[in-house]
Design brief:
alpha+beta
Length: 76
């Protein structure tokens, strides 16, 4: 089951922190913006989408700690 969360990464530091947290997970995590999909564990992929946009995070696994750690990036 895929879990989704909406986030914003307004700065490069935020993007780096997000990638660091995502990289700890042993399952795939994607970030989508419009019709573009990138690996959430790739800083270059995330930066290629641009910052200050609302992204959708798609987790293809279960890790409650991951969602706790990215809560600060969540948007309603």
């Amino acid at each position: 089951m895929t879990k989704q969360r909406r986030i914003m990464l307004p700065t490069v530091a935020d993007a780096k922190e997000f990638v660091s947290v995502a990289s700890k997970c042993d399952f795939d995590i994607d970030i989508t913006y419009n019709h573009m999909i990138v690996d959430a564990k790739s800083i270059l992929g995330i930066l290629s989408l641009g910052l200050e946009k609302m992204f959708t995070v798609n987790c293809h696994g279960e890790n409650p700690e991951f969602f706790r750690e990215i809560q600060k990036f969540a948007v309603a």
